[in-house]
Amino acid sequence: MLDFSQLLPFSLASLILILSPGADSFVLLRIAHSRGVKDGMSALWGINLGNTTQALLMISGIGLVVSKSEAAIFVLKILGGLYMAYLAVMATRAAIRPAMPVAVPSAEGARVKNGSPFMQGLISNITNPKPLLFYLAFFPLFIGSARNVPLQLTMLSSIFVGMALVWQTVIVYGAVKLSETMKSVRFNRIMDVVCAIAFAAISVLIFSEL
């Protein structure tokens, strides 16, 4: 038996959390803005493969074991911090590159040069231990009177990932719309600087928790 009375408070709490900007949001924003809808959506699916994987770890109980391993969390934080630092460097390089005519990039050449957007999204999510720790701390609060706990957690995870998909799709199309509306070198530099600062701040925050 499932406890459907938990759906409304869970959905409201999840909405607040999903709307809060984080590493995944800035990865999506930068990829969609600089490379177009196709790559933005590819990054979105990578991020949500990571979300789904971490949700499955939480449901299976493996996540609880991982969360209690200081070594595993330490390694994930190191990898996550380094990857955010790498993204900050890439965004900084883009911001200071010589001015060139602006276009909405979607060419295969950009994809090859900058790497797979799917993998960028997946790596940014899967190397961040916070989603897993969040699932382990947040989702059990909404088990309620459910007798089948794994099924209740599966239902909650599906709702959360579904809501995240909707919001992230808005981010992708919003970023592309901005890039189409504000076709200027200066605007693109501003976007790169904002993302570079965000990535650097997230990297520093991750390393400060070690």
UniProtKB/TrEMBL annotation:
GO cellular component, one term: plasma membrane
Residue spans crossing the bilayer: 12-31, 43-65, 71-91, 132-149, 155-178, 190-208
Keywords: Cell membrane, Membrane, Transmembrane, Transmembrane helix
GO MF annotation, one: amino acid transmembrane transporter activity
Topological relation to the membrane, as annotated: Multi-pass membrane protein
Localization (cell): Cell membrane
Annotated signal peptide: none
Entry keyword Transmembrane helix: yes
PANTHER family recorded: ARGININE EXPORTER PROTEIN ARGO (PTHR30086), ARGININE EXPORTER PROTEIN ARGO-RELATED (PTHR30086:SF20)
Protein name: Unannotated protein
Organism: freshwater metagenome
